[in-house]
Amino acid sequence: MANQFELFTSLRFDPGLLGIPKRRLANAGWNAKMTSPYYMLDLHRDRMLRAATHWNWTPAVETIAGETGLQNLADAVETFLAQHGKETPLRVKVLLTSDGKLSCEASPVPPVPLQNLFPERLPPPGSSKETSDPSEEPLMEVVVDNTETSQSEYTHFKTTKRAMYDTARDRARIAPTDRKEVLLVNSRDGTIMEGSLTTPWFWRNAGAVVKMEPLADGLLKGEYPDVSRHLGLPADCVLRNLAAEEEVKAGSLVDGEPCWISNGVRGFTFGKVRLSAA
Q1: Confidence (pLDDT) at 38
Q2: Which of 256, 139, 267 is nearest to 202 (CA)?
Q3: Which helix (H) or strand (E) holds 204?
Q4: Whole-angstrom Cα distance, residue 212 to residue 201?
Q5: What angle do CA 107, 110, 92 make, to 5 degrees?
Q6: What local confidence, expressed as pLDDT, does residue 229 receive?
């Protein structure tokens, strides 16, 4: 029986990224080495490859594995954009089937400051502003889903089976253009799993940025391995010594507390938790 879902990743196409290598940004990862308009393309590929490997989709693995696979991904996006235009920043959704076929969709996205795509730090609450800090405007409203969600392989890997995320957004009454995100809560232990479209970052333990803790098998507890999450952890040389992984209970969140949310399209966005009714 054919698989009833596809893998996907959403990446940022932005002509402004072409100049990153000349800026010699130590925290720009793949984009510091490659002249490319694609935001962290290697991490997008790695995420899809892990998912394809998990489901034993051999043709899909062969399509995107290794340097040839990374080039296949870039070529698929480039071919699509050549037919649909590439003058302004775009969100490009790349889909991968079990038989190794790549396809793309695209939609416009607003400009994002480079310091929000490649932050040197996430400034602690109340700290003095530095010129290299990411912008905190415009603010994102962050709410907590009032219904818990069961973790599964579909909450760990990014697939087109997204009913749990869509219904969470419906419950929070989020329209596509709203500057609002909803956080999903793990039904097993009441911890924050992820946002419907983003990875959340909170301040705990004397100001450290913390996130979900990996399980023994290497999977995050219900959290799909977001591209921007890898940007924020010490292993990827961004926000070095500032970011750590830790469980965050939904009940520990405070109304009005500052946080950051991130993904592979918009980078890092400042937000505030809202628990009280509007």
Answers
A1: 97
A2: 256
A3: strand 199-204
A4: 9
A5: 30
A6: 53
Token pair recorded at residue 221: 């507890």
pLDDT for the residue numbered 243: 59
Q: Give the contacts of 158 (CB within 8 A, at least 6 positions apart).
A: 7, 8, 9, 47, 48, 51, 224
Contact present, 234 and 271 (Cβ < 8 Å): no
User: Which two tokens mark 193?
Assistant: 């799993």
Own/partner pairs, 79-85, CB within 8 angstroms, 24+ separation:
80/104, 80/106, 81/13, 81/106
Per-residue pLDDT of 170-219, as tens digits, reads: 999 999 899 999 999 999 999 999 999 998 888 876 554 545 433 323 33
Which residue numbers in the chain have pLDDT < 70?
Answer: 1-3, 205-244, 277-278
Task: Say if residue 123 is preceded by a cis peptide, omega within 30 of 0.
Answer: no
Cα 17 versus chain centre, distance = 18
| CA distance linking residue 172 with residue 217, whole number of Å | 32
Task: Mention every residue, 6+ apart, whose C-beta is less than 8 A from residue 193.
Answer: 149, 151, 155, 183, 184, 185, 186, 212, 221, 222, 223
Place of tokens 């697939």: 159
3-state secondary structure of 270: strand
Predicted confidence at residue 220, as pLDDT, reads 35
Count other C-beta atoms under 10 Å from residue 187's C-beta. 13
Are the beta carbons of 141 and 180 closer than 8 angstroms?
yes
In this prediction, residue 223 carries a pLDDT of 43
Coil/strand/helix, residue 201: strand
Q: Which residues pair with 245 in a beta bridge?
A: 211
